[in-house]
Amino acid sequence: MTRTSLSRFLIEQTRSHQTPAELRFLIEVVARACKMINHQVSKGALGGVLGSMGTENVQGEVQKKLDVLSNEILLEANEWGGHLAGMASEEMDNAYQIPGKYPKGSYLLVFDPLDGSSNIDVNVSVGTIFSVLRCPDRNGEEGDLGEEAFLQAGTEQVAAGYAIYGPQTMLVLTLGNGVKGFTLDSEMGSFILTHDNIRVPETTAEFAINMSNQRHWEAPVKRYVDELLQGQEGPLEKDYNMRWVAAMVADVHRILTRGGIFMYPRDAREPEKPGKLRLMYEANPMSFIIEQAGGVSTNGHQRIMDIQPESLHERVAVFLGSKDEVERITGYHSK
Ligand code: AFP
């Protein structure tokens, strides 16, 4: 049987869907960087890559050595090819400028280099999340690319994906015409198409939320989770199961595989911040993937991909996954 590699899939996309060659190259380079990150992650203690750097990122979170290493891998892989006008990352305060010695391209790459990095030291799945936008026309303007170029709604994404470093390493990708999953064949060093048309089941009996924050949630979330917990005896008249990996990549991957609802609501711990997750490099790419797989993604009040970002590291409440449940909790917010 002929196996379809990521390269072959992308070349066929270029032919049939007019995916520009520059975008094809970009995805190939990101995939190559993910293979390098996978290699570092899998070395664990043998590679001396576990533990913290002793520094904090712009969000005030302690940076793991692998957060910093993964960020460097993505920057170095993508800065020289001429396909990007700039990059932005969870691990950098400001937009990354393509060095002047390299040509610039027409795309912007935004990423969380290592999502769920608190899982690294305990050998649980982590991942890389990325989003691709077009760089707005600069009208011949030279000089540094400002943050405003990146501040585009999720609906403007031309591609999004994630790599999951788990029992298997996979790359899950959307170019806006469905969702494909590629599994890394580590002997051949290639991502092979193994999940051709990923769809999220509309109904589910599984939910994902960090229950330890329950006392901080807003009323609609308390009501909804309370109903889930009542199971068959409650108004929803069925038993639900709960899972929480604490790496969005792994929780979303499970939902893409067998359905479910993922929630990281706004809560009262930091009232000025609407949630923990970041809009541009976590919520938007995951929302694009979930919607392309037939699921729904909102912040409780509106579609996440319609939100106009106001800053690079903006946070957002997230409810995504199986249509029926996301619509139910979104409905509770309007009551
Ligand atoms: P990092 O990317 O900083 O490791 O954070 C992971 C994450 O943003 C997301 O992937 C998880 O769903 C969420 O945080 C876990 O949060 P809790 O620490 O509240 O479980």
TrEMBL record:
Keywords: Carbohydrate metabolism, Cytoplasm, Hydrolase, Magnesium, Metal-binding. It comes from the Bacteria. Substrate binds at residues 115-118, 210, 276. One of its GO terms (cellular component) is cytosol. Its main location: cytoplasm. Mg(2+) 2 binds at residues 112, 115, 282. One of its GO terms (molecular function) is fructose 1,6-bisphosphate 1-phosphatase activity. Belongs to the FBPase class 1 family. Homotetramer. This is Fructose-1,6-bisphosphatase class 1. It comes from Denitrificimonas caeni. The lineage of its organism: Bacteria, Pseudomonadati, Pseudomonadota, Gammaproteobacteria, Pseudomonadales. The gene is fbp.
